[in-house]
Amino acid sequence: MKLIVCTLALALAGAVHAAPTFDEVRKAYRSSDAELLDRHGEAIQSLRIDMTVRRLPWVALNDISPALPAAVLQAEDQRFYQHDGVDWNAAAKAAWDNLFRTRPRGASTITMQLAALLDPALQPAAKGRSWGQKWDQVKAARELDTQWTKQQIMEAYLNMVSYRGELQGVGAAARGMFGKAPSGLDLSEAVILASLLRGPAAGQKVVSQRACALALELRLPSTCSEIQLRIVVAMSRPQLAANLPPAPQVAQQLLTRSGQAVRSTLDAGLQRYAQNVLRQQLAALQGRNVNDGAVVVLDNASGEILAYVGNAGGGEVDGVAALRQAGSTLKPFLYELALERKQLTAASLMDDTAIDISTPGGMYIPQNYDKNFKGYVSVRTSLASSLNVPAVRTLVMTGMERFHERLREVGLSSLTRPAEYYGYSLALGSAEVSLLELSNAYRTLANGGMYGAVTLAPQAAAIAATAAPRRVLDARASFIISDILADRAARSVTFGLKNELATTFWAAVKTGTSKDMRDNWCVGYTDKYTVGVWVGNFDGQSMWDVSGVSGAAPVWRDVMDYLHRGQSSRAPKPPAGVLRQQVAYQPALEAARNEWFIAGTESPVIALVQDLHRAPKILYPGEAAIIALDPDIPDAIQRVFFQAQGGQNLSWQLDGEPLGQAASSYSWRPTPGQHQLALVDANAKPIATAHFQVRGLNKSAE
């Protein structure tokens, strides 16, 4: 028998087999996961792509505990460092024993096993390998031993061999069975892994027998009972042990192929910090029925997403992309529109008293969050303190259609229904928006009215795919709105002077709470960053006694403090066409102050004039208003209500035809087309006029 083996060895001496190089094998190796990298190249998240096998990144031999190679050599190939890829002595003994045994005994070396792992043609069929396969396996093993070092052979083998079930490679086996890196494997764990190589599908009893015998051979201090207990625990682990993933939603968006590593715009440290802060706040709010939340951080200049926390836990819902009711977070864009159209200034007085607005669906009666009314307050106070009634009055002034269009212009693409669908409650955030789009809309304010797309891909690669920033808001009005949102004194009417919105650096911020306390928001920006936070419940349950300041704001404040821990934030410079002037109120409803105005709208005195003494003016519809008919309401009952101030002793006139007295609102059945509404005196002389348009059900101009 030894003569036969020697003859085979001599025959193989001249055989040539094209073995791959070690570098080729390592380069071709693919993890079953794809890896998400942050903006600095730091690994932040893995995502399983290949579901047929579980492999983690390749592990260098120096990063594997020495206990594992020692146990593997004892179990599989004790003469590994002496033979040339084939252990002829073991082969001869196996061949002799197999002549007299019913259960064949193998003599494959580690090198021969690796050769089979590298070449699918050498894999055994259901009945085992053919003689031809065995011959080719021997030749391949000798070629590997000639070209590779023993250390390279051992490293490749440990990374490519299957250990248990879908776990392939030492990285997946160590993580999946023991919850640790390969470098941390102890002697008992190494013995268990080595015992699995001969039969990865073997039952616990068989594995225990092999492991106990191997431990005895290696003279380990562990008892067989201890090893058996560890086997039970290791083989019962349901999945790879891992910490809660910090960015699963981003990984799902960017990772598509197993083995790939994709760099994102995220900052790993900021991402983990935002996730931890959100979790801590939700834990504090657990007694108020607040279970879910999301955070997004944008770079104002580039639009890069620096943090994207889809939810605080390991769930599947993406709170950054989910649509939720916006609450008061839409008010800044309403007031910006009114300032831009010069219908209001920051100093204008708004009537915060009860208002009833007739609508086709009945009377709409908005109320403030605290159920109290403040009387006459300035636009600055109305926005900063988030008063609802002045916002609704402003929407009546600007027109629903125009405000709806403005919200679409700042990127709120979810507003797909016509303006009439939302009604006047649109001023109070009845529409559903995503945290990402809402935060980017605030970023538009931060950038002086310039809208630009956001991205998760590095900016260098995303420039070609993103349009250049475009102006969607007036720079002057945007500046004034930012100044109001940063004014803690104006905010104090509702929130007080000390709250989570009062940062130690310049920041503009707005909170919002949706109807029935289902959603709570805090969105704001500094000169460099925009941060948006949402808390609530993904299942739509109402929160209990949670406001913007107590719900989302603490997370917003902590993230902003983290971003500015080493840098300050400066207020924006006023653009051309904006001036500051001292303004006083008569009567002194608010203290005299310096106020910002768009040039041409400034006034040193804001006087409250009783309605009897006010100049006649058409309040609704405003000049160039667009009114769209509601397709869900029968034509016969659709109505538009004309409203005026100072309308005593005046009459309504529409397209030259008299309608009735203007001292109160007038109900008119709308007809499509262009119209001219006028307030006329007793001699039919126009005192005030307004041109408006009614659109038909097909939404096209008549």
Automatic annotation (TrEMBL):
Coiled coil (UniProt feature): none
Catalyses which reaction(s): [GlcNAc-(1->4)-Mur2Ac(oyl-L-Ala-gamma-D-Glu-L-Lys-D-Ala-D-Ala)](n)-di-trans,octa-cis-undecaprenyl diphosphate + beta-D-GlcNAc-(1->4)-Mur2Ac(oyl-L-Ala-gamma-D-Glu-L-Lys-D-Ala-D-Ala)-di-trans,octa-cis-undecaprenyl diphosphate = [GlcNAc-(1->4)-Mur2Ac(oyl-L-Ala-gamma-D-Glu-L-Lys-D-Ala-D-Ala)](n+1)-di-trans,octa-cis-undecaprenyl diphosphate + di-trans,octa-cis-undecaprenyl diphosphate + H(+)
Domain Penicillin-binding C-terminal: 611-683
Pfam families named among the record's database cross-references: BiPBP_C (PF06832), Transgly (PF00912), Transpeptidase (PF00905)
InterPro entries named in the record: Beta-lactam/transpept-like, Glyco_trans_51, Glycosyltr_51/Transpeptidase, Lysozyme-like_dom_sf, PBP_1c, PBP_C, PBP_transglycosylase, PCN-bd_Tpept
Enzyme Commission code: 2.4.99.28
Top-rank taxon: Bacteria
Pathway in which this enzyme or protein is active: Cell wall biogenesis; peptidoglycan biosynthesis
Signal peptide feature range: 1-18
Entry-linked Gene3D superfamilies: Biosynthetic peptidoglycan transglycosylase-like (1.10.3810.10), DD-peptidase/beta-lactamase superfamily (3.40.710.10)
Domain Penicillin-binding protein transpeptidase, first and last residues per copy: 293-560
Domain Glycosyl transferase family: 52-205
Keywords in alphabetical order: Carboxypeptidase, Glycosyltransferase, Hydrolase, Multifunctional enzyme, Protease, Signal, Transferase
PANTHER family: BINDING PROTEIN TRANSPEPTIDASE, PUTATIVE-RELATED (PTHR32282), PENICILLIN-BINDING PROTEIN 1C (PTHR32282:SF15)
Family: In the C-terminal section; belongs to the transpeptidase family. In the N-terminal section; belongs to the glycosyltransferase 51 family.
The protein, known as: peptidoglycan glycosyltransferase
Organism from which the protein derives: Duganella dendranthematis
Gene name tied to this protein: pbpC
